[in-house]
């Protein structure tokens, strides 16, 4: 069944991706219904596709044998990419265990925010699955700032702890900034300590970043990993980021620069947003406004990464009008199931990295 | 004399700038030779000028009374802007002295590099002029890394020292990165400690940056100050930075974002550089390649800041082909005499800021 096949190739990414992307000429349809253009027309179509695909190392299945041509956007399935990374991590953790190294992650939860409880639970579960030891500290909502800082100081010194994660938001009587700064930068697996952000900024190439064992913020790193594993070539690509937040926009910009992409950052102050986003070969939306990126704001063949997660009366949706934009995009992430699953995965990656740095392996 | 007048207005900047900028229609000529278009033609010309000037709060002198129309680019004279800032600083330092606060800057020079000696001498002289106390440590070229680190540790603790500046390059047997990291971030008046870079990145608006007493890297801060004092409106402007260095490109990008500009960063990996630079309302060149930005790479009415300083057989020149680009630009910095004089000035600004933070005034 063609539909099944297409799914599989999306998972494997780069090497086998069927060109089920790019085109507004033919709208996305179930594989069964794709039009038969005949051999000659197929070839004509394909020269266009080849051109659009030029900047990515996509392996194109011209569909000549089948005589059909699937042209809808490739759906970038973050969940499956994340699963693949976790499998790789699991193997790595197993090898570390042979050397007597067991990565350890501490989560700290203050109070009983239900959403935070869900997140922490999910992190603990993910750790267990790949062999990271996790310790969950649950503190009452009236814990003082001093008590929390004392705990962090103790954890900073504990050699069994490679990563410390304070679940936000903290109760209002605690200075979040002070708490985050108290975490040893060498255990800052969230990657938000100014010294880690500063180090990231000071590196020119991704290779240098990886060699030095800097912790990258999880969502931005997830975005880059998703692009790379989907086979999108970033060097020389025009990348446009909508949103200049500290947790996504700015670090994504730095990581894209380290991949030799040309980078533009837009925001609420940008005069004509559509004019800028239409230039993008790769568009990253990270604003938090439901469906604000509409089809007229992208060019044909764009790759779209939607970081937004917005709760609307109709359910979860991203910053991109997915249904409309996917008709023009070469590849696009859905919400949910796109960037989201990458975030915890990159936290696990950082924790394993931290254990390796502590053991002198990086 | 019209030429004199134009000079004066450039110094005062924003409030009185005569529109002696923008146009390729009329090439720059001495004021004495400017063409008389007659009143009617003047008005036609001016509607174009008004449009080009739209995004900046320039005060336009339509020249109607004089019946002439000066259209060449405004030359942004960094030396005079720097002088103005130093005058303001001098007043501030005098007021601090009344409170018993004397800002102190230490320069450390290891070895006898002649260029470094010149730079240090110039810094010491500048400090003296505005009332900053300066201490210059000159160490022999064979000083060990440990000795240097010990000196820095001592200076970190010395309350009379508000800023520590290690003149680069250091001899090869000393790890520069280690030395720079050893400087207390609260005395890092160069603004290159990762924690200062990280803090800069974590702020959304310029106001927040200023309120927190973060030290901004001197050249990037000088670029922004030059733009602001020239009256260039940055909010919503399309700004393009050529060069992604840690000392200029990246921090300038962060500072421009904090001014609500749309920011694009280009570099050697950018496919069609001219295509990108032609979009710029404000173009910052910081590459280190003589005259690489040619007239065909800019649009009419651009504001150009040239950070490059290149030694060529014909003398010093910037990254911008000044003579050709000034015919299209609204305003442009020369090299030398543009950004250069701002750098030491912003070092003085940081030192005074550090003294104020130490005294609890910020």
Q: Helical segment tally of chain A?
A: 13
Gross CATH architecture of the largest domain in chain A = 3-Layer(aba) Sandwich
Widest beta sheet: strand line-up of chain A: 1-11-8-7-5-6
The interface involving the most residues is between: A-B, 32 and 32 residues
N-to-C SSE string of chain A, H for helix and E for strand: HHEHEHEHEHHHHEHEHEEEEHEH
Could you state the oligomeric state of the chains shown? homodimer
Rg of chain A, Cα atoms, Å: 22 Å
CATH-assigned fold name of the largest domain in chain A: Rossmann fold
The main sheet of chain A comes to: 6 strands, parallel
The average pLDDT value of chain A, as a whole number, equals 83
Helix content of chain A: 40-55%
Taken from the alpha-carbon principal axes, the silhouette of chain A is globular
> How many separate structural domains of chain A?
3
> What's the CATH H-level superfamily name of the largest domain in chain A?
Leucine Dehydrogenase, chain A, domain 1
- The CATH class of the largest domain in chain A is identified as Alpha Beta
* Class from secondary-structure proportions of chain A: alpha/beta
Total beta-strand segments of chain A: 11
Enumerate the spans of chain A where pLDDT stays under 50 for 5 or more consecutive residues.
Answer: 1-70
Note the beta-strand portion of chain A.
5-15%
Distance between the termini of chain A: 45 Å
Protein architecture, described:
2 copies of one chain form a homodimer. Chain A is of the alpha/beta class and 362 residues long. Chain A has 3 domains: 2-72, no CATH class; 83-200 and 343-352, 3-Layer(aba) Sandwich (Rossmann fold); 215-340, NAD(P)-binding Rossmann-like Domain (Rossmann fold). Helices cover 41% and strands 13% of the residues of chain A. Chain A is built from 13 helices and 11 strands. Chain A has helices at 2-12, 38-52, 78-98, 114-130, 145-157, 176-182, 194-201, 206-211, 218-229, 249-257, 273-277, 322-325, 340-358; strands at 74-75, 104-110, 133-139, 163-166, 238-242, 262-266, 282-285, 303-306, 310-312, 315-317, 331-332. Chain A has a 6-stranded parallel sheet with strand order 1-11-8-7-5-6. In chain A, strands 3-2-4 form a 3-stranded parallel sheet, with helices on both faces. In chain A, α4 (114-130) links the parallel β2 and β3 (133-139). In chain A, α9 (218-229) packs across α10 (249-257) and α9 (218-229) crosses α13. The radius of gyration of chain A is 22 Å and the shape is globular.
């Amino acid at each position: 069944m063609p539909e099944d096949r297409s799914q599989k190739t999306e998972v494997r990414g780069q090497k086998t991706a069927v060109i089920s992307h790019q085109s507004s000429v033919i709208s996305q349809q179930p594989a069964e219904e794709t039009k038969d253009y005949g051999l000659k027309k197929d070839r004509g179509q394909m020269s266009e596709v080849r051109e659009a695909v030029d900047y990515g190392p996509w392996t194109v299945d011209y569909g000549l044998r089948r005589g059909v041509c699937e042209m809808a956007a490739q759906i970038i399935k973050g969940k499956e990419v994340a699963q693949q990374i976790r499998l790789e991590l699991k193997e790595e953790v197993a090898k570390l265990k042979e050397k007597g190294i067991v990565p350890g992650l501490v989560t700290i939860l203050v109070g009983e925010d239900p959403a935070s409880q869900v997140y922490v639970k999910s992190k603990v579960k993910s750790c267990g699955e790949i062999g990271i030891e996790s310790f969950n500290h649950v503190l009452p909502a009236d814990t003082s700032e001093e008590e929390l800082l004392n705990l962090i100081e103790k954890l900073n010194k504990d050699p069994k702890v490679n990563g410390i994660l304070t679940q936000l938001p903290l109760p209002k009587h605690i200075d979040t900034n002070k708490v985050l700064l108290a975490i040893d930068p060498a255990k800052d697996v969230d990657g938000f300590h100014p010294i880690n952000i500063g180090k990231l900024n000071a590196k020119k190439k991704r290779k240098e970043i990886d060699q030095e064992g800097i912790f990258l913020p999880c969502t931005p790193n997830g975005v880059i990993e998703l692009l790379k594993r989907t086979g999108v070539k970033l060097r020389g690509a025009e990348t446009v980021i909508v949103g200049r937040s500290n947790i996504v926009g700015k670090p994504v910009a730095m990581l894209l620069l380290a991949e030799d992409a040309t980078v533009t950052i837009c925001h609420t102050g940008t005069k004509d947003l559509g004019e800028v986003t239409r230039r993008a070969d790769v568009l990253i939306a990270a604003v938090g406004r439901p469906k604000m990126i509409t089809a007229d704001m992208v060019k044909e063949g764009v790759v779209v990464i939607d970081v937004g997660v917005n709760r609307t009366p109709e359910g979860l949706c991203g910053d991109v009008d997915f249904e409309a934009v996917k008709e023009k995009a070469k590849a696009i992430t859905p919400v949910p199931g796109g960037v989201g699953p990458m975030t915890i995965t990159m936290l696990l990656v950082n924790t394993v990295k931290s254990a390796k740095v502590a053991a002198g392996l990086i």
